[in-house]
Write a structure and sequence with these properties.
About 65% of the residues lie in helices and about 0% in strands. It is mainly alpha-helical.
């Protein structure tokens, strides 16, 4: 099983997210401000939050594809990891790893057609380990800081417009 996450793919996917203005991204993805606030909150999510959190994460992941005019396809685990690592607080990594589900790696998807048994996937424990690694990786910390700064500025602008 190839469950090694490619950190360069995570950085590339993160740059796609950072290239979009936050207000436009949230609107295009159909994410409401209170759902966004729940996603980025510093407190632990509760079981009752699972549906809203997973809907928001999936809307964010697939909304990027939609906003770029791309057809939806199986997203590699590295892209999902990028979304979670820059938009979710570390206190919620464990829940996010379990709730986001399993996904194939970029390397497996590059091989094209799935083998008869299907692709090997990055399971929640591998995904959680990838998040822990990503939180300690300095290249991702810089991207995360840029994303958080952009988010704070954009949310302040949204508040002024309302």
């Amino acid at each position: 099983m190839n469950s090694n996450l490619n950190i360069k793919a995570v950085v590339g996917a993160t740059n796609v997210l950072l290239s979009r203005p936050l207000k436009a991204l949230l609107t295009e993805c159909g994410i409401f401000e209170d759902d966004w606030d729940l996603l980025i909150q510093p407190n632990c999510w509760l079981g009752a939050d699972r549906l809203r959190v997973t809907r928001t994460l999936h809307a964010l992941c697939y909304g990027v594809c939609d906003s770029l005019g791309l057809p939806r396809f199986d997203l590699p685990s590295e892209f999902l990891l990028a979304v979670v690592s820059i938009s979710v607080r570390p206190v919620n990594y464990f829940s996010a790893a379990h709730w986001i589900g399993s996904a194939p790696t970029t390397a497996d998807l590059l091989h094209g057609e799935a083998p008869p048994g299907g692709f090997d996937v990055v399971d929640p424990s591998n995904f959680f380990a990838g998040l822990c690694f990503a939180s300690g990786d300095t290249s991702l910390q810089g991207l995360q800081l840029a994303y958080q700064t952009k988010t704070k500025i954009a949310l302040a602008l949204i508040s002024k417009e309302a």
